[in-house]
Amino acid sequence: MKPRFFSRHKETIFYSLIMGIALFALRFLEIRFFVFDYTMEFFVAGIALLFTALGIWLALKLVKPKTVIVEKMVPAKIDIEINQAELDRLGISKRELEVLQLMAKGHSNNEIASELFVSLNTVKTHAANIFEKLEVARRTQAVEKAKKLGLLA
Predict the structure, then answer these.
(1) Burial call 127-145: b when 16+ CB within 10 Å, e when fewer
(2) Is the CB of residue 137 less than 8 Å from the CB of residue 131?
(3) 89 near 79, Cβ under 8 Å?
(4) Of 106, 90, 99, nearest to 124 (Cα)?
(5) Which of 129, 130, 136, 134 lies closest to 149 in space, CA to CA?
(6) pLDDT score recorded for residue 143
(7) Residues 139, 125: Cα–Cα separation, whole Å
(8) pLDDT category, 16, cuts 50, 70, 90?
(9) End-to-end CA distance of the chain
(10) pLDDT band at 74; cut points 50, 70, 90
(11) pTM over 0.70
(12) I need a labelling partner for 51 at 20 to 30 A (CA). Which of 8, 34, 72, 109 fits?
């Protein structure tokens, strides 16, 4: 069936292809003449787009911060000697001293347990031993007395 269709309508297909090519050529020439007629407008629009892009790029470069500043608190190391004689007299162990130092920094029992990797009950036991050895009833009193005795910096 197909060979008959093409053979019967051969002239129609040929003329429609010629007509399509002619319309394409006419459209191409029309656009080309349009571009030549308005060359100055296209040139000005191109320059406007170029300067707009340049302005946006320059604004982003000027507004953007050059460096990122990251501030981090670093605790200062104070070279104050701990009164070792007083520690020996009171019988405070190294671990109890660590707990006392963290108490002085304002840490809770849970925070002290997390930082020293011990259980909460162990921290409470150390705190009770510190209170007994320093003869105080509260944390604030223990910290105050330890500072007076030179046990804390």
Answers:
(1) bebbbebbebeebeebbeb
(2) yes
(3) no
(4) 99
(5) 134
(6) 92
(7) 13
(8) confident
(9) 106
(10) confident
(11) no
(12) 34
CA atoms of 147 and 5, how far apart (whole Å):
110
pLDDT-based confidence at 22, cuts 50/70/90? confident
Sign of the torsion formed by the C-alpha atoms of 134, 77, 80 and 94: positive
Q: How far is CA 51 from CA 38, 67, 152, in A?
A: 20, 27, 67
- Residue 103: the pLDDT is 93
For residues 97 and 90, give the distance between their C-alpha atoms in angstroms, rounded to a whole number: 11
| Tokens representing residue 10 in the block | 């051969």
AA identity, residue 120: L
Q: CA–CA distance from 141 to each of 1, 80, 104, 112, 135 (Å)?
A: 110, 21, 10, 18, 9
